[in-house]
Amino acid sequence: MTGKVILAVPAVNGRLFTVGLVISWYSSNIGVLLLNKYLLSNYGFKFPIFLTMCHMTACSLLSYVAIAWMKLVPMQAVRSRLQFVKIATLSLVFCGSVVSGNISLRFLPVSFNQAVGATTPFFTAVFAYIMTVRREAWITYVTLIPVVTGVVIASGGEPSFHLFGFIMCIGATAARALKSVLQGILLSSEGEKLNSMNLLLYMAPIAVVFLLPATLFMEENVVGITLALARKDVKIIWYLLFNSSLAYFVNLTNFLVTKHTSALTLQVLGNAKGALAVVVSILIFQNPVSITGMLGYSLTVIGVILYSEAKKRNKMSS
Fold first, then answer.
1. Structural domain includes residue 83
2. Which parts of the chain span the membrane according to its record (predicted)?
């Protein structure tokens, strides 16, 4: 009996650790989303490119600390100039995704932003078919119908619908899907595979290089304006520092949750996270929601669940 108790303690501790990781992932993910919305929309800090550059700068520094100093994962080297070009390409697409997503938050409520973001599997399937000519089973494509239909319904029933914000949100979702497909193609050989933490270590500084001229050109005098804001309200500096650190912890906790759970668990947790973000954002920002909009979002989530299930069954049968 004693032996069984001793063996059970590490298992319980392991489960508690995993639960803690999931809570940290949810908290950081929803936290950065809500704080982005607050800064860009409610607070009036209308510089999404500069905000993204702050995120990428924090990711660069904290990734180096986590890998080089804290040894959370072994450091993987870039092996060739070609591999560096591939990483830079991914970084450019990643920049486009994050910037577009942040721009959309200026014009759209978080709830609708998440509803559109749930269509990522649709764009992933489209890009995978175009770029790899890899076909899924027909039932997998059928499950994408409710994914898209749900967003169409949600768009029609969204009281705060904004066309430009919607286009930016679609662009962000498509770019996110394109990055995942490109990553599978570009870094597919054994010698080039990087875990997500090492990929972020190399992508984030490249993203800063891309974003710096874009910030200076498109968001003129943003540093001067931010410093002027800080003189009136020093909290803006703390908001930016905390928000940028959270952006890194989203990636760190995502990596750790992926490492400690199965792919299926991750998909289920991801769907639940999106739904929770919608509820929390509505409670905090009090944005109006219609029954039509909620029905549309629910249909999209059901479609995503069916898509994940169809993909899993297809893999098991092949």
1. yes
2. 7-27, 47-72, 84-105, 111-131, 138-155, 161-178, 199-216, 236-257, 264-285, 291-308
